Amino acid sequence: MKLYGKNPVIERLKSNPKTIRRIMIDEDHVDLDYIRKKCNQHGIGVQTVPHSKIQRLAQNLNTQGILADIDDFAYTPIEELLNNAYEKRRIPVFLDNLNDPQNLGGIIRSCGALGYFDIILPSTESVSITESVLRVACGGENYLSVAKVSNLGNAIEKAKKMGFWLLGTVVEEGQDLTEIELKFPLALVMGSEEKGVRDIILKKLDVRAMIPMKNQRMSLNVAHATSMVCYEIIRQKE
Fold this sequence. Notes:
By secondary structure, this protein is α/β, with parallel strands linked by helices. It has helices at about 5-15, 35-40, 50-55, 80-90, 100-115, 130-135, 150-160, 200, 220-235, and strands at about 1-5, 20-25, 45-50, 65-70, 90-95, 115-120, 145-150, 165-170, 175, 185-190, 205-210. Strand 5, helix 5 (about 100-115) and strand 6 (about 115-120) form a beta-alpha-beta unit. It starts with a strand and ends with a helix.
């Protein structure tokens, strides 16, 4: 996989340098001394290349003059993720059939920044961790675990049997999120961009929540909605 951009590469160097195979720096950029220094510390090869090569490898995306070859994303087994979440009071976030890489990247960025969150994705009918997702995540993937499961409903049932309280979001007929007294250990379920949480998953929830909005005609994409719900979780958790 390839990782583009100054901030994503710096975060990877800080938190997970072993996954970096090599780094290429645009010869036109001279302000990347920090990255060169960190690479020397970790024995990571640095290659200075022409701007045209960077652009070709990045398919003309804005790389900010830096591109890293990294290992493929390593998913965490669901049992390991849930056990760690239970022991360390982290919050598993089940994402029900998201299809937009931008939204998944945004969720990872927010969850990584807020801390205490991990993510579970279905292995089918869902976006996976791709280069596009990592570009939007901007390093957030280094601060959480991601599991991929064949059956999201079964994974949710595992969490419930462990004692996690299931909170999910709905567009209508839900309780005001800010008026719910959250219970911990807690797991969160967020629905897809178009269809929301599927009925088969809704039946497994302990509580259905709505984000209070003055302008009900407006809507939030799933990345923005997840950020708001996760912030409320952290506010009550602490």
